[in-house]
Design brief:
By secondary structure, the protein is of the alpha/beta class. The chain has 3 domains: about 150 residues, 3-Layer(aba) Sandwich (Rossmann fold), CATH 3.40.50.1980; about 170 residues, Nitrogenase molybdenum iron protein domain (Rossmann fold), CATH 3.40.50; about 35 residues, no CATH class. The strands form 3 sheets. It has a 6-stranded mixed sheet with strand order 1-6-5-4-7-8, sandwiched between helices. The longest helix is centred in the N-terminal third of the chain and has 23 residues. The N and C termini lie far apart (about 80 Å).
């Protein structure tokens, strides 16, 4: 059979040379202009970009309230509502488990006590892309996670206000929906457009313009991570099932034309078998036109050992890493850089996409080397406090004075000296 997937055999250097970060540079200038316009002109600029880029009519509403999300929910079948609720419960349960790992601190320090508190941000802006396929799963992953973290006000921005998207927003009790996409939506979440007030954190995946806009606003608002086009690395050996590998590659490839599906294997015969399976499965896959394009972005890399596979995977630091080998758990423990890890053929990445528990908003473009995926932690602030009382700790004060003068900051030194010579009120 002649291959038309163009799922080529790649070298490690070819794979590592590919980066979604490169295309991001091209989008930054465009995103910067859009963000500036929305920030300075507000609603007028937002309306202009929504009309020209999102293709919506000037008369279409930009903001939807809880009554609209309630109507969308009421319009679903009972079975649809049951399933959305069930998925939401899994996401909520995992988030609640994460919250239980957090504790406030209160410890003795020289002269008193110190500690930290854990508190949510006041307002969260969550983006869910429209693109080729609107994703109610992303609405739940972002807005519901913010709610579990305790965020009082949660907004959703999406260019695809379909009934399922709005119904998912209802499940998460979203305060309002901004019907806009791209950089203009990110700017609106970051800087506010009445009635939407500026958000404290902006999260969610999107195309390169969304990701670029998040980079632009990052100096003024907290963002989660670069979360652009989908990436999947599968590490496989001779024990892997070709049909399963092909199906998992296609599941990521169908996301969009910029998706990056990669197979790293120690088994040369597996490459040919996976190619044949890709062709067979593409024949009946409705999203094949998109998947075929994305398959050309990635490819298969043949390595000499699992050690080489692990090293290459860590260099790529992909959004998703799936291990389909003998002793998959052991291989998983040896991996250092990934957005989310899927261990064994019974743990397909698609389970992560659709709410088995952990979040599917994950770092791309090698962001996994420095940040993890979206979680309740994204919406929390850990703030420290100090309360000293009684007589000053002489050793502490001596050390503070010494270090202040080493750094040339005499005012710091005098601030503690004053407390040694005068009676001051403690907290």
């Amino acid at each position: 059979m002649k291959s038309t997937t163009t799922f080529a055999l790649r070298t490690a250097d070819e794979l590592t040379a590919h980066s979604h970060g490169t295309s991001l540079l091209d989008a930054l200038d465009i995103a910067r202009d859009i963000v500036r316009d929305v920030r300075t002109e507000g609603l007028q600029a937002l309306r202009r970009y929504v009309t020209s880029l999102d293709g919506r009519a000037e008369s279409d509403p930009l903001f939807l309230d809880r009554a609209e999300t309630q109507r969308a929910w009421d319009g679903l079948t009972e079975d649809d509502r049951l399933r959305l609720d069930r998925i939401a419960t899994r996401i909520r349960t995992f988030g609640e488990a994460q919250m239980r790992t957090l504790h406030e601190a209160d410890v003795a320090v020289p002269g008193g006590r110190a500690g930290h508190t854990v508190a949510p941000v006041e307002r969260a802006g969550c983006y869910a892309p429209g693109g080729l396929y609107p994703l109610p799963s992303t609405v739940l992953m972002t807005t519901l996670t913010a709610r579990v973290a305790g965020v009082p006000e949660v907004w959703l921005a999406t260019p695809a206000a379909s009934p399922f998207m709005l119904a998912a927003a209802h499940v998460a009790d979203v305060d309002g929906v901004l019907v806009a996409g791209g950089a203009q939506a990110i700017a609106s979440l970051a800087y506010g457009v009445d009635p939407l007030k500026p958000c404290d954190v902006v999260v969610g995946p999107g195309n390169k313009y969304v990701t670029a806009a998040k980079h632009v606003v990052a100096g003024d608002v907290r963002i989660d991570m670069p979360a652009g086009p989908s990436e999947l690395v599968i590490i496989a050996d001779g024990s892997a099932t070709p049909a399963i590998i092909a199906a998992d590659l296609l599941a990521q490839a169908e996301h969009d034309h910029d998706a990056l599906p990669i197979l790293i294997t120690t088994e040369e015969r597996l490459v040919a078998s996976v190619r044949a399976e890709l062709e067979r499965q593409l024949e009946t896959l409705p999203t094949a036109p998109v998947a075929r394009v994305a398959l050309r972005n990635g490819g298969a890399c043949l390595v000499g050992s699992l050690e080489e596979a692990i090293a290459l995977s860590d260099t790529l630091a992909a959004e998703h890493v799936q291990v389909c080998t003998e002793n998959a758990a052991d291989v998983g423990r040896r991996l250092g850089h990934y957005g989310a890890l899927f261990i064994g053929e019974r743990s397909p990445e698609v389970l992560g996409d659709y709410g088995v528990g952990p979040n599917h908003v994950l770092p791309t473009a090698r962001g996994a080397r420095s940040v993890g995926g979206l979680s309740v932690f994204t919406f929390l602030r850990v703030r420290t406090w100090l309360a000293c009382a009684g007589q000053p700790d002489r050793t502490l004060y001596d050390d503070v004075r010494w270090l202040a003068r080493i750094e040339g900051l005499e005012g710091h030194a005098r601030a503690v000296e004053l407390r040694e010579t005068k009676a001051v009120r403690s907290g």
